[in-house]
Each structure stands twice: as structure tokens, then as C-alpha cells.
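Progress note, sequence design subtask.
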């Protein structure tokens, strides 16, 4: 039996990403997607308790793209902590959003 020695490991880095800014926000955020291929991505805004407050589907092209999300459009958000959840993307699926 032969055994090997691990010399160095590399962390797994997602090839796709998304960011939101500004954060904290008053309700309008810039959502920037960086995708390896065009795809539909769904976003849900959740309360701190996990209640779905808003849902929006975007058709994004490959590469980097930015769109504006109005998080307070139909929800009349009170100041506090919320979570924006992404599905259909190879990256961290939930980000904290602070509303002032």
C-alpha cells in the first residue's frame, strides 16, 4: 500500500458571484451578477423570521451585469435586517440586507 502526502490544498471558489450595494439601503439596491453562462436567477426577500416578502426572477446574460432592485416597492419595509436569497446561481445563496 502506498500513501501520499498532501502538500497544499486550494479552497473551492465559486465561478459565479453576486453582490448588492449599497448595504445598508433605503430600499433601492444595485444587484451585480457575474455569471459563466446566461441563466434565469430568482431572488426572494425574506424577513428576519424567514417570511417571504418579495420574489423576482431575472434573465441574466453571461458575464457581468447590474440591475436595480426596489426592495421596498410592494413591501413598505420597516428599518431592520432582511435576507436576499438567490437560487439558480453557483454562489452563496443568501445575503443579509440592512434597511434604514
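Output:
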Amino acid at each position: 500500500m502506498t500513501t501520499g502526502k498532501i502538500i497544499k490544498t486550494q479552497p473551492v471558489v465559486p465561478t459565479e458571484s453576486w453582490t448588492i450595494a449599497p448595504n445598508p439601503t433605503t430600499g433601492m439596491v444595485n444587484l451585480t451578477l457575474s455569471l459563466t453562462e446566461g441563466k434565469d436567477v430568482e431572488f426572494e426577500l425574506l424577513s428576519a423570521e424567514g417570511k417571504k416578502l418579495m420574489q423576482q426572477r431575472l434573465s441574466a446574460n453571461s458575464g457581468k451585469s447590474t440591475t436595480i432592485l426596489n426592495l421596498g416597492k410592494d413591501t413598505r419595509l420597516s428599518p431592520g435586517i432582511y435576507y436576499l436569497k438567490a437560487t439558480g446561481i453557483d454562489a452563496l445563496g443568501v445575503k443579509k440586507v440592512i434597511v434604514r
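The chain has one domain: 17-99. Work on this subtask will continue into the next period as scheduled.
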